[in-house]
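Worked problem 6 (solution included).
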Amino acid sequence: MTDAGGADWTAPEVELVAPGVHRIPLPLPNDGLRAVNVYAVEDGDGLVLIDSGWAIPEARRRLDDALGSLGCSLADIDRFLITHAHRDHFTQAITVRREWQTKVSLGAGERPSLETLHDPDRGRLEPQLNQLLRYGARRLVEEIHAGMEGHPPLDRSEWEYPDDWLEEGELSLASGRRLSIIETPGHTRGHVVFHDESAALLFAGDHVLPTITPSIGFEPVLSPNPLGDFLGSLARVRQMPDARLLPAHGPVAPSVHARIDELIAHHGQRLDETMAAVAGGATTAFEVAGQLRWTRRGRTLDELDQFNQMLAISETGAHLTLLVAQHRIEVVLDGEVYRYSETD
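Solution. The predicted structure is:
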């Protein structure tokens, strides 16, 4: 978890990354990522925080300490700007709001996912698990259901609605700083990034990460073509002026463009590998995922834990969906399972 200079980006220290902008890494529970970056932006007499962290006691303590080192407190946060509605980005904003009435803002494209999470008739991970059945991963789904037995139901109080829904456009802060809200669907349907063109900064959330590739295709309300959305969003950001990359996970990096080029190349290669697996006889997303290698360590699907197996199979499904959209392969629904084959 070190950057090119050898520093540990997850260390509990506040980093001044640009004038008036401070990076605050907050811990994650039982998560290979270990930390999420929250950015405190000075805004007149207060602060605007981009993302908020996971609502766990240790993250709250770290945030209190970090703000204290800046001569501030939670009471000085005027607003949270949330890149997307994942637990490690969103839920601490909700708990802080209960105490301080802090405004919470979230991309409008996340509304369907939050509405699904609030549906009392839907169980934990129900939409994602149903999708995994379509991908041919019945045994994994049965194992996950068995592991959930006896667990408490989803705490929907962590997923309260924001105060307002962000639409694409310009956002002026009290300090005069101007942020462009850019819709970047892919990692989630409603993901947004915040571009400070005058300071050449991109608050990228999970859209562009410096050392890993964002997961695609695993959310409560799935886009018809999540990987197509993601690649389109990358291309759009690539057309903007280059900026310093302020990611949610990993160290700050000097060029958004350089990392986008790497991500596009990665998915191009993965599309070719997925196509080759189908040509070799794999017919479901589960079968294809079993022929691919995962993480920088090149692990097999069986070597991943259950959660990362879900991500891997879902991402494989997203690659297959794009190949179908490109007319490079065909798909039919065979009972409950999508089956893929080469085009005639």
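Discussion: The chain has a mean pLDDT of 94.
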